[in-house]
Design brief:
The structure is a homodimer of 412-residue chains. By secondary structure, chain A is of the alpha/beta class. Chain A folds into two domains: 217 residues, Rossmann fold (3-Layer(aba) Sandwich); 142 residues, Rossmann fold (3-Layer(aba) Sandwich). Chain A is built from 13 helices and 13 strands. In chain A, α1 runs parallel beside α11. The radius of gyration of chain A is 22 Å and the shape is elongated. The two termini of chain A are 31 Å apart. At the A-B interface, α6, β9, α10, β12 and β13 of A face α6, β9, α10, β12 and β13 of B.
Chain lengths: 412, 412
């Protein structure tokens, strides 16, 4: 592969995570040190920053400050939810991107996001190749949803999983203090894939896990749910339930659907209020005390409870993207190939074709879901537990997190 | 004061906190080592455990395991919400308590709870004194609400405050990633006192705080609220709001009232769903994206984010209760006298008369609330910031908290 010198752009897209900035730091730190990369530009609000020519000159930032990206949640460069048109139908955006790439002599493009962002990467890569502009395009994955195909898991998932499992342990203790009994229903994110909700099961490793877990991979039955809760409550005088926002009836209708309002930029319905709805059903059916809890944004930004493994792997994915691109790779996403055996857990970066990753969703395998469809088995625990090991190196000041403060100097 | 030898009972009451077990550990650890205390009994579910003769023999527990109480949230002995009758009206419970005290030769009673629990303590103390049974009764405070009179602050508050401030910082970052703008409304606990909601302001020390804060100490106006949010949003294209569950209109009606269902054991209305209600109003008035978040139980059990200062002070309050009682004190609550000056923050235990503490509520002083009634000032920050310093010493195993597992052997 020929040597390619030029500037790089790094951008972030989609919902943020606790460690998406660790990935971007992996890109920035590695790119700043690489002799083939002449300039490191950060796109404000993802691809929109490219379209609007709003690019930060990352070399203007203090290196020590930049390192705090590893422990700062959310998308430090700003994110977007912007669906690129099919270039065969409308190539306006692509022409504009090409114009900007030429303006700054951009030869490397790193895009940090979920499956919609991998689709964006793939389209840009194909367009540049078609018009004969040499540019290497790499996807750097992130998603708490853990639903990207190919890779063993996604950066961002493990930190959310660790927060969820920790919170379940704490709420489990809290909800059992009275002798009166209580049903607690905790709603986790995950439209179509139940990885985050399944992560609640990790709390069971320490005997403080949920009694029941409902995932969107299987159909939900309200009758069965009520019967399950009644059975557990009769036994324990208490019941802790983990439920995915995306659970649906056999006909595909979301259980939360009637309360849905609005859609996000990609046309996905915004779900919410499900826990409260299920709580109402249990209250009416059983007359017991019920507490619905929605983990909401907390689960995707709780950097104070991030997984050390996740932070290190997120950094590695960004670093690998730069190194692989400089070595000649393009149109790839950096994923992970992992082994879990008697020698422990091992994770290596691996490149996947963007076209294979874009717009597909990886779900929790059915063989990890129990027969009654209200829990997960040891297969899931063995898969997930290694991912949440290790703690964050978050810097504290005044007893609070010291998050990054970027200068955000626009490139000339 | 004469020397008094005998057994002690320690119990927990009311809603748990992240550090209530640290207080109980202060009692248990100190009592087990004190020669005047012949036996240390833990009451299952607070005063109910005394009435039902369900008392754990704490000497049967492994000392290393007991120490994990310092980092384990929730009430490890079990809690209750049980309002004692006025002994002049109905002394049934008091006679039963006396019977149990005599059975185990109990001469020390330590009760770990909020203001209702201090009332329980006070009534028991007065009854024992009236019937001439020598017994020293000490209140060991806890409450995330921080509403106990006399003491500078309450064990449990600071850890909840630290979690709230940390979560606000994280959500603040998360809610500003898009260029589209969003209003985020986070609901904190606190029926009549706004301490927890005010704690969100600590995040402002790191420039990631809420734009608006609404406390129950002042009347709420929906018109003013909408105007406030519109003004901030027009300026920043974003708005982060902290709101107490107990905000009320000028006529005293809770803003959340129409959604209220049920009451807790003391007759307090159970509040909730307020953030969602306010979000609906903003959505209707402004047509922007709004995200309501309720911190719910998470804020009172997030031991993984507890304040090191709070843990140490909670332990100290339990320890002081035992030492003071053995030295002759009775009918007192262990509170804190604190100084904050150029020499830093200093906290000393101080005894308060139970009769002064019971059933009164300390609110956020009006001079710490801004004129517009939508924020707090530096006075509150100076008061609160020292309390959240230091981190938990929580032991981790499998990447998750290692909480205490008690054997709970019943006393013979």
């Amino acid at each position: 592969m020929s040597e390619l010198k030029g500037a790089c752009i790094v951008g972030q897209s989609g919902g943020p995570t606790s460690v998406i900035n660790a990935s971007v730091y992996g890109v920035i730190d590695t790119a700043l040190k690489n002799p083939n990369i002449t300039r490191v530009l950060g796109a404000e609000h993802g691809i929109k920053g490219v379209l609007n020519d709003r690019l930060f000159d990352m070399a203007q930032e203090d290196p020590a400050e930049l390192e705090l990206l590893k422990y700062t949640p959310s998308s430090a460069l700003g994110s977007c939810r912007y669906k690129m048109a099919d270039p065969d139908v409308d190539d306006t955006d692509y022409k504009r991107i090409l114009e900007i790439f030429k303006k700054y002599d951009v030869r490397y493009f790193f895009y940090n996001g979920g499956n919609d962002s991998m689709d964006t990467c793939n389209k840009i890569s194909k367009y540049m190749s078609r018009v004969g502009y040499e540019c290497r395009v790499m996807g750097v994955p992130k998603t708490i949803d853990n639903d990207l195909a190919g890779t063993d898991h996604c950066p961002g998932f493990a930190s959310a999983a660790k927060y969820i499992a920790t919170s379940f342990m704490e709420v489990s203790r809290d909800s059992q203090v009275y002798d009166k009994g209580m049903v607690t229903i905790i709603e986790c994110m995950g439209r179509h894939a139940g990885w985050l909700t399944a992560a609640a099961a990790l709390a069971s490793v320490k005997n403080d896990g949920p009694d029941l877990i409902y995932l969107p991979e299987v159909d939900f039955s309200m009758e069965q749910f009520v019967a399950d809760v009644k059975r557990v409550y009769a036994e324990k005088k208490n019941c802790l339930v983990a439920v995915s926002e995306g659970i649906h009836y056999a006909d595909g209708t979301f259980v939360s659907e009637a309360k849905t309002s609005g859609t996000d930029g990609f046309g996905h319905a915004q779900l919410g209020g499900l826990a409260a709805r299920l709580a109402d059903v249990i209250k009416a059916e059983m007359g017991v005390k019920v507490r619905p809890i929605e983990l909401s944004l907390l689960q995707r930004c709780a950097a104070h409870c991030a997984s050390g493994t996740d932070i290190a792997e997120s950094f590695m994915s960004g670093k690998t993207a730069v190194e692989a691109a400089v070595a000649g790779a393009t149109d790839k996403m950096v994923g992970f190939a992992c082994t879990r055996d008697e020698n422990g857990y091992k994770c290596e970066p691996k490149l996947f074709d963007l076209s294979l990753v874009a717009n597909t969703e990886k779900k929790v395998p059915l063989e990890w879901i129990n027969e009654a469809h209200n829990g997960v088995n040891q297969g899931f625990i063995d898969y997930c537990l290694p991912l949440i090991q290790g703690e964050t190196g978050m810097v504290k000041e005044d007893g609070l997190p010291r998050f990054v403060q970027l200068k955000k100097v626009f490139a000339k």
